[in-house]
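Posting this for the archive.
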Amino acid sequence: MNCVDIFAGCGGLSLGFTRAGHNVVAAYDNWGPALDTYASNFKDHQIYSFDLTDVTNAVAHIKQWAPDLIMGGPPCQDFSHAGKRIESERANLTLDYARIVSGISPEWFVMENVDRVLNSNAYSVARNEFLSSGYGLTEYVFDASLCGVPQKRKRFFCIGHKNSQHEFLLPNIKAALKNKKPLTVRQYLGDVLGTEYYYRHPRNYSRRGIYSIDEPAATIRGVNRPIPKGYKGHSNDPVAVQDSVRPLTTVERAQIQTFPSDYKWVGSKTDVEQLIGNAVPVNLARFVGKLIGQYFEQEALHGL
C-alpha cells in the first residue's frame, strides 16, 4: 500500500515499512538535520520541509498523494522517561498528527511514540479524534528486543484501520510474538564490536553503565558520552571499568537501532546522536509493517 511518513525524522519508519513491502510515496518533517539525513538515504520519493502544525495546509498538501496509510512519530520529548515529564507545546504535535489523519481519512494510520504517551492528556484528546473519525484502534507497547532489534526499547504504537473493531490486530501481534526471545547484541552484530562489554552513559548513577554484548542493549538515547573520569562503577555492572570497555561509536549505536552500516547521517555530532536516539528502530518498523501487510492480505482473501 502507498504510505506517507509525517514527522518522518531520519527515516526509521520509512525504511522499515519499505522493507516490509510497502511503498513510501512522500515524507514530511521540519528539522534540517532530519530532512538532510532522510534525503541522503531515500532517492525514490519526495521529502518536504513543512510546518505540520499548520494542519489545514498540511492536509491539503498531503492529500495529493491519496495515501492508503499515514504513519509518523510526533516528537515525544515531553513524554519521555529522559525528559521533564510535563506536557508543553511539543505535546500538541500529537494532536496535530491526529487532526491531519482525520482531515485526510486514509484507510490506515500508524502513530509511534514512547510508552508514557498513554498517560498523557495530549494522547487522550488525539485518541478521541481518531475514534470520532471512524477508526478502530489497536494500541500496543512493543518490546523492540522481541521484534528483531538487539535493544530493550519499549515503544507504543497506535494502529488505526477504518471501520474495524478495536484491537483488530491484537491476535496477529500475539501470534507473531509467541515464543520470541530477546535478541542480544552478539546475536545481531556478532563480534564486530571487538569487545565483550561497552559503556552506555546512565541517566543517573543509581543505574548501571556497563553492558555485555550477550544481552540486549539498553535503550539508545539521544546522547553519547565517554566514560567519566572517576566513574566508580555500579553493583550491577557485569565488569569493572577497564581498557577494553568503551562507549559505542555513532555508527554502532545506529546499527543497534538496526540501521544499515552505510546509512548516511548528516549534521553536527550532537544532531546525529539525537537523530539516532529518537529514531524508530528499522526492524521494529518492519515488524509492524509486516503485521499490517498480512492483515491487509487476509482482508483481501476473505473479501472484506
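The radius of gyration is 19 Å. The chain has ten helices and twelve strands.
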